[in-house]
User: Fold Ferredoxin, 2Fe-2S from Teredinibacter turnerae.
Amino acid sequence: MPKPDHHIFICMQKRPPGHPRGSCGERGSEAVFNAFSQQLIQRNLQNVALTQTGCLGPCQAGANVLVYPSGVMYGWVEPDDVPKIIEQHILGGEVYADKVAPAELW
Amino acid sequence: MPKPDHHIFICMQKRPPGHPRGSCGERGSEAVFNAFSQQLIQRNLQNVALTQTGCLGPCQAGANVLVYPSGVMYGWVEPDDVPKIIEQHILGGEVYADKVAPAELW
Assistant:
């Protein structure tokens, strides 16, 4: 693809049950990834890239979603947040404030 | 970590031998990742994040390395390129032109 206008990275890290850090995988990242994938297809957003990643850092705030080039990290993301992130941030150019990770995490 | 000044993403995608697209894993991405990891530690670059990813797209140009927020994709990256990307791009603020992916790929 040509260089996208927005690049959405989703942490898919998995850790064994009971691991002290937990993981985004345990916190529903696969459903979040699928929701983004579906939104991009439904809205035909060809200028937006979507990529799975390993650990992005703030495991306690998973599922983590990081958007570049704006450099905004969203935490505790659930599938219901995905249309709002798409509408407000990707299409509207305004950060979806409800789920922005706090400054101590990013 | 706090929001980094540079975020380096490395495609670690693996595919079975003989797969028509090949993969960055097959093209040495693990050694490239290790080289970046070593450089960041040796130079104590705490303002640079390093993250493994799934497929970034231009498989034929692997190993692929993507740097944000500048949005520069490097292709055909080998471990020997890593100190040059660190010095020129991350520390010097100038793209390491030798391995920038061509415009038709990114």
In short: Chain B touches chain A at residues 1-3, 7, 9, 12, 49, 51-57, 66, 68-71, 73, 103, 106 (CB under 8 Å). Helices of chain B lie at 29-42, 82-91. Chain B is about 25% helix and 20% strand. Chain B has a mean pLDDT of 97.
